Amino acid sequence: MTFPDFVLFDIDGTLMAGSSDHLRVLMRTANKSLGINVQIEIQHEKPTLNGRSIAGMIDAQLLRLLMPVESQNGNHHISLADLVAEYGNDYRESIQSGTISPGKILPGVESFLRVLDSHQIPRVLSTGNISMVASAKLAAVGLAHGFCFDAHLGFGDLHADRADLVKAALTGLPFPAVRGKGLLIGDTAPDMKAAATAGLFGAAVLTGSDDENELRLAGADRIFAGMQEVDEFCASPKSPWIAINGKSKSG
């Protein structure tokens, strides 16, 4: 078997399907706290904000888009940190009350996580969800075990974009990350672009928002139908999964 030294996972469209109800909560929180009227639509794992695609954007990016300029400069009654906390609490309450769905685990995910754990391969999250949302969402379906939910790691609480988020996620590893030694699994073009920037093998799965052409153009090293194929690929004795500067070689 040929395994990476570590694995980064996106959540929505990668580990889980139908799990984007958090965006509806984000919309409600923003409308309530900022006094604005925005509409987020979710069709086939591809969310849009007032008609604009927001696939792959992180929660902090969305909130900054919605906040008035004076709030972003700290001269308004609500800060980004306050808005994130309110949104996280609203999501947890919605999950507990059953008014939204956390989503469902995609095929092959639980098996692959068990394989990684059995080989002591570190795994961390690299998700646009804020940490409170990620924690509540994964706990609701029994996937939270083995992941750390520190908001300063690979979560959408405060980072500028997906590339910054991946850098932060790597600090959660038990050892320094080495370029070309890790695997990032995601379903969007921003996931794949961030993987390339960080020197990670970009494993794209077709279980989320973006199609094969979008993922390939974004620099995906390999495209899989789903997590089951990723599991089989890593288990192959000749998996050329290691990516250095966008080029693969045998591991």
Automatic annotation (TrEMBL):
Transmembrane segments: none
Entry's Gene Ontology molecular function annotations: phosphoglycolate phosphatase activity
GO BP annotations, alphabetical order: DNA repair
Descriptive protein name: HAD family hydrolase
Cross-referenced Pfam families: Hydrolase (PF00702)
InterPro entries according to UniProt: HAD-like_hydrolase_sf, HAD-like_sf, HAD_sf, PGP-like_dom2
Swiss-Prot/TrEMBL keywords: Hydrolase
Gene3D superfamilies: HAD superfamily/HAD-like, Putative phosphatase, domain 2
Domain of life from the UniProt record: Bacteria
PANTHER family attached to this UniProt entry: PHOSPHOGLYCOLATE PHOSPHATASE (PTHR43434:SF1)
